[in-house]
Design goal:
By secondary structure, the protein is mostly helical. The chain has two domains: 52 residues, no CATH class; 279 residues, MetI-like (MetI-like fold, Orthogonal Bundle). It is 60% helix and 1% strand. The radius of gyration is 47 Å and the shape is flat.
Amino acid sequence: MSATETGGAARPAAARAVEERGGEERGGEHGRRPGSDQPIELRAPEDASVSPADLVPEQQPVTTTRPLTVGTTRGRRAPTPARGPEPRGERGTGVKLADISRTGDRVFSGLAGGTGVLIVLLVAFVGIFLLVLALPALLQDRDNFLTSRSWVVAGTELRFGIAGLLWTTVLSSVLAMVMAVPVAIGVALFLTQYLPPRLSGPLSFVVDLLAAVPSIIFGLWGLTVLGPFLNPAGLWISDHLGFIPLFSASTQPKNSVFVASVVLAIMILPIITAISRDVFAQTPRDHIEAALALGATRWEVIRAAVLPYGRSGAISASMLGLGRALGETVAVLIILSQAAPNSAFTPSIFAGGETFASKIANNASEFDTPSKTGAFIAAGLVLFLVTFVVNALARVVAERGSAR
C-alpha cells in the first residue's frame, strides 16, 4: 500500500467530517479563498494524532455562520450584519415627532393683514370725509380757491382761497427744514462717529427730550423769549438784504414767519436726529474698518461709508420732520400775527400770516353753518393732500437711495 493510500486511510474522522460539511456548504463544489479564484485545499496532517485546531492556515477548516457564496467574492456586496429587535413603538415608523400647531401663525398673519388693511381704510375714510364735506362749499365759492387770498365765509356769498395760507405754510416749513436738517445730521454723526459710547448715550437722551416738550411751551417761549432775542437779527437782515422780496422789512418782526420757523426747526430737530442717528449707527463695521485700513481720515470715512449707507434713512427722517412742521398748530398760532383784512400780500419771512393749521384752529368756534364749516374743511383737505404728497415723495426718494 502506498503512502498516499496510507495517509488517506489514516485521516481522522474529524477531518473527514469537516471536509464533508465544507462541501455541503459550498453546494458540492470546492471552496475558494475570499478575494481569490484559487480553491481552498484541505490536507490532513501526516500525524493522525493532530487535532483539527492544530492545522496550518491551509489546513484549517472554514467555519462560517452564513452560507458561502459560490465562486469568487470579488465585486460582490458585503453581507448585511444581523439587526437586533426593533424598539417597541418605533417599528416601521422611525422617530415620532410631536404635532406642530399652525394656529399662532394663522392668527398673527390675520392680525397683521387686518391691521394693514385697516390703516389704508382709515386714510381713505379721512380723505373721503373731507372731500364730501368740502365739496358743497367749493361749489358755492365765488373766488378761485387756489389763487385767491380773500377769506369771507360769513353770509350767503362765499369768497375764499388758499393762496396766502399755502404760501405761509410752505415758507415756514421749508425754512425750518433748511435750519434743522444740517444741524440734525451733524448731531447724529457726532453722536455715532466721534463720541465714545459712554458719552453719546446721555447726550442722545438729552436730544430726545426735546420731543417731549409740549407745543404750547414752545409757542410761549418763542413769543416771549425767542422773538425779542431774534428781533435785532431780523432788522439787520432786512436792512442789508431788504432789496430781495423774501427779506423785505416788516413792522412786526417779533411775530413773523422767521421766528415761527426757528421754533419749528427746534421742534422737528429731535425727530430727524433720532432717526438719522439710528440709521448711521447701523453702518456695517467692515465698511468703516476697510476705509480706515486704506488710510482714510474720519471725515473721509463718513463721506465714503456712513453717508451713502444712511442717505435714504436721513431723507426719510427729514420728510417726517417736514410733515410735523406742516401740521404744527399751537406754537405757530401763538407766534404768528394775523395780517389785516384786504392787506397787500408780502412774501417776506419777516411778515406775519396764517398757516392751514393755525387758520382752522383760530376759527374753530365759527363752525356754525355747513357752508362756513365746509370752507375750513376745504383748507384741511388741501393740507391733507400736501402732507400725503410729501410723504409719498419721501418714500420714493428713500427707495431710490436704498437701491443705490
